[in-house]
TrEMBL record:
<dbReference type="GO" id="GO:0042744">
    <property type="term" value="P:hydrogen peroxide catabolic process"/>
</dbReference>
<dbReference type="InterPro" id="IPR011614">
    <property type="entry name" value="Catalase_core"/>
</dbReference>
<feature type="region of interest" description="Disordered">
    <location>
        <begin position="1"/>
        <end position="20"/>
    </location>
</feature>
<dbReference type="Pfam" id="PF00199">
    <property type="entry name" value="Catalase"/>
</dbReference>
<keyword id="KW-0560">Oxidoreductase</keyword>
<feature type="active site">
    <location>
        <position position="128"/>
    </location>
</feature>
<keyword id="KW-0349">Heme</keyword>
<dbReference type="InterPro" id="IPR024711">
    <property type="entry name" value="Catalase_clade1/3"/>
</dbReference>
<comment type="similarity">
    <text>Belongs to the catalase family.</text>
</comment>
<dbReference type="InterPro" id="IPR018028">
    <property type="entry name" value="Catalase"/>
</dbReference>
<feature type="active site">
    <location>
        <position position="55"/>
    </location>
</feature>
<keyword id="KW-0575">Peroxidase</keyword>
<feature type="binding site" description="axial binding residue">
    <location>
        <position position="338"/>
    </location>
    <ligand>
        <name>heme</name>
    </ligand>
</feature>
<dbReference type="InterPro" id="IPR020835">
    <property type="entry name" value="Catalase_sf"/>
</dbReference>
<dbReference type="GO" id="GO:0042542">
    <property type="term" value="P:response to hydrogen peroxide"/>
</dbReference>
<protein>
    <recommendedName>
        <fullName>catalase</fullName>
        <ecNumber>1.11.1.6</ecNumber>
    </recommendedName>
</protein>
<dbReference type="GO" id="GO:0004096">
    <property type="term" value="F:catalase activity"/>
</dbReference>
Amino acid sequence: MSEKKKLTSASGIPYASNEDSMTVGPRGPILIQDFILHEKMAHFNRERIPERVVHAKGSGAYGTFTVTHDITKYTKAKLFSEIGKQTKTFLRFSTVGGEKGSADSERDPRGFALKFYTEDGNWDLVGNNTPVFFVKDPKKFGDFIHTQKRDPQTNMKSPTMMWDFWSLNPESLHQVLILMSDRGTPFSYRHMDGFGSHTFSFYNDQNERFYVKFHFKTKQGIQNFTNDEAVDMKSQDPDHSQRDLFESIEKGEFPKWTLKVQIMPFDDAKTYHLNPFDLTKVWPHGDYPLIEVGELELNENPDNYYAHVEQAAFAPAHVVDGIYYSPDKMLQGRILSYPDAQRYRLGGNYEQIPVNRCPFMTNNYQRDGLMAVNGNGGSNPNYFPNSFDDIEVDESYKQPAWPMESLMADQYDRNAEGENDHYTQPGNLFRLMDPEAKKNTIANIVGAMGGINGVKKDEIINRQLCHWFRADMSLGLGIAKGLDLNLDQAMEGMVHPDPAHKATNE
Ligand code: HEM
């Protein structure tokens, strides 16, 4: 008798023919009773789930985070409790605007979504490879993303939509400048930094709070494609980043990042010259230096892409004891959005999928629903309070109260006064670039803005040019020259009233 495994139906019934359908005689039609044929076709028809509405194309791997420096004076989070402590992680990288089949080397920010499987539950840090973002209010997110997707009529990507939106939202300038530099086309996922991007908060075992930003510095070194190289790679190998990550892990060349944090004392937020919760700004390192915390290593390729990478669900809402949110409006908007998207994409019990499941403990009274596959609580009570089980609320997880005066409630009303300097930080960033990086950035912007067309072409170009000039005179001039614009007209753009300021002040 054969030692091999028997081929079976999904219900485990062995069957004899996997290739020939059951017919009425050798030349006759197919019999409807061929249940296996029906099962195979029906399952195939259901193979697709909605792709992520953003960040649809991605790559992922498991890894280990190891603490190398003591930060217990800032946070009581157990994963940071002692030097040498290790925590299992899962990291999913992604591009943002393209569909699941799009090319990895597109000019786009890259997602850097990291799940730490801690003993206090899963902590998800869902960031990008840039420390800032295009908008600072979640109300604008859907509109912004529409401009990165396809035109409703032509079904094509539209530089006109993109630059129209960016030029009307000058708060985008910082992120757009990074996107248009060669950092917009990283060589691979291994050769870029990752950022938590938002301001989060820490609290320690004395219940003292701090604000914190997370930075993951690549140990492989930053490496970017030039625009031409990125365009070439799209046709040569659209899955270049997936291949690079998968193969390096298979070879045992495990990619590593150093985790560093910036810490802002809680009370500084009230007086710091920038709104520290504005996602379009960085905290200059001179003010808040990087403090080393630990090392992240990716060391295990998932054995099945769909099971682990496609079904992974990250949520900025998932923070663990010792780590909390901040008043960053974008972060606040994201808290409810992700689990909502995942209930739609993966179903209400998506936390039971192995990549999302907390390996340590989940005790609650949530029951039933589509695909309740974890035993559904067995015979345990399904209500709280009850007299039968020993599940209790643990008061030691109570957070320190959030002092209201820290929120400056009289000032941070919608868009606070004095927050419309969208130009200083992008200008400083451009001035920091070496001549080669400046040249490439200008050429990339000229190439990208060259795609603007239609009846509003001149209006959009002038409005955007005005923002570039405001950031840095030589940047504006370089772009105007590259676009073959009349210099007098271009300079005039600088003194045009800026309608977008009105929009962001509302
Ligand atoms: C994915 C919404 C801002 C990084 C997603 C998804 C949604 C979403 C609905 C798909 C989730 C899923 O189906 O699993 C939003 C909203 C935002 C926002 C409403 C602003 C209000 C940001 C920002 C960052 C970011 C500021 C980075 C700093 C990511 C990443 C993913 C993602 C990395 C992919 C996660 C993965 O690999 O599964 N976002 N997003 N998003 N978002 Fe955002």
